[in-house]
Predict the 3D structure of the following.
Amino acid sequence: MHPWIYEYYIEPIISDTGYNPVNTVTWALILGCMLLLIVRLFRRLDIILDEKFIFCTVPYILAGSSLRVVEDANLVAAPEKYLLITPIIYFLVAAVTLASLFFFRWVLKDRYLSGYVVIGLLWTGVNFLFLFSKGTESLLVPLAIFSLGSAVALAAWAAASRLKFSFLSDRLNLLILYAHMLDASSTYVGVDWFGYTEKHVLPNFLIDLAGTALVMYPLKFLILIPVLALIDDTLRSDPSLKNLTKLALLALGLAPALRNTIRLSLGI
């Protein structure tokens, strides 16, 4: 194996050291290609990528995020644990999610979402029972994170309403904003209160520069607001690609938010 490949791709997975500029760009490009392929596949199978589908997929995001904590808690040994480290776990969860979706599309026909969402909820429930059966360190942590995230998201919604930002009146856009405010809050609580470190390249740089993870809030707004407005504007003629892109954005906020919250609650 080439040393360059090992340094930038393999070693960060084996040692779970996080991201670097090279693999960050690579995984982003792969994500974009996967979104385009999934849209084409869903069209062929007549699977509608609407708001209802996205809400039914949320349990799978929660399942994948809680599964990631299983590795954080050292409950799985090598080499199996490497399957639960990003970005491999994203491919694993995507494979299970798509398998569940295609199975119920085949078995239940037009009622496929009812079976699809139940499996996601059961998977999430099993993960939660397994993790929290090990005991908790503090249940005040999730209360703090959800309170902070909710307060900032509510303030952002109120400000957007006064400024006539109509795209933030959309339920899905609000859910995405809320997920990322929870992510920012979990990062702030983890870094500033408990001494955790941020593994993503840009946030880590800005946190070091500002001396506090509070910088995550303006960073999220500066990136998220223009991106959501751009998606609604440029992908208006392709609802399927627009909604799948929003689902990816939702996962990128909700998954780390839940993972961080569970880790802090368990004292990992």
Summary: The mean pLDDT is 88. The two ends are 33 Å apart (CA to CA). The CA atoms of residues 24 and 85 lie 14 Å apart. The chain is about 75% helix and 0% strand.
